[in-house]
Amino acid sequence: MDALAPAIGLVDPKFPHNVGAAVRAASCYGIRQVWFSGDRVRLDASKGYRLPREERMRGYKDVVLRKDDRFLDAFAHAVPVAVELRQNAESLIEFEHPDNALYVFGPEDGSLDRAVLARCHRFVVIPTRHCTNLASAVYTVLYDRHAKRVRAGLEDRNVTAGVSDFDEPDHMADAVGVTWGR
Asked: Other CB atoms closer than 10 Å to residue 117's CB: what's the count?
């Protein structure tokens, strides 16, 4: 499989639900691939491992999920961006997203190691008062990318109301008093 940037790279994630949420975020923002490394999350369906049900909805099949311990090697023409709290990292507020970014996120219980950081060209920090979880970090970066690209006229605004294939369960709309534009 060819690597397609922009993409998400998760280094040694700990929890399947965070990998699933990264897939969901990628689908929401038009990112076509999520790659992950490590052995802590196993998604081999034949052995009973898989993403949580809410992250396997048919609407997210537009995102390819791939395990590869050397996923950075596949992205020779991408700009690896480490999303990491580190000295001299650019604040996400001022960050200009490369068109062909590979956003690299570390594990929930640690940081990116030196070998991964050495391969990253850019470093960005999400300016929060406390650390966020992995899924929140992925959503925040992808939302920021989308918002800045819409303002720059580089992509269309995402719209869900009135879209016939929007995959939100009807019972959720009833629970929060929302009527989807169908």
From this structure: 16
Count the domains in the chain.
Answer: 1
76-126 pLDDT per residue, tens:
999 999 999 998 999 999 999 999 999 999 999 999 999 999 999 999 999
Q: What's the Rg (C-alpha) of the chain?
A: 17
Strand segments (E) across 20-114: 33-36, 64-67, 79-83, 90-91, 101-105
Instruction: Please check whether residue 134 lies inside any domain of the structure.
Output: yes
Q: What does the alpha-carbon distance between residue 71 and residue 5 come to, in Å, rounded to a whole number?
A: 12
**116 in a domain, yes or no?**
yes
In a domain, 41, yes or no: yes
User: From residue 64, how far is each of 57, 69, 124, 130, 138 by CA, in Å?
Assistant: 13, 16, 25, 31, 16
- The pTM of this model reads 0.82
Give the integer Cα–Cα distance in Å for 158 and 181. 15
Assigned token pair, 106: 């570390």
**Within a domain: residue 60?**
yes
Range of 35's domain?
7-156
CATH number at residue 29: 3.40.1280.10
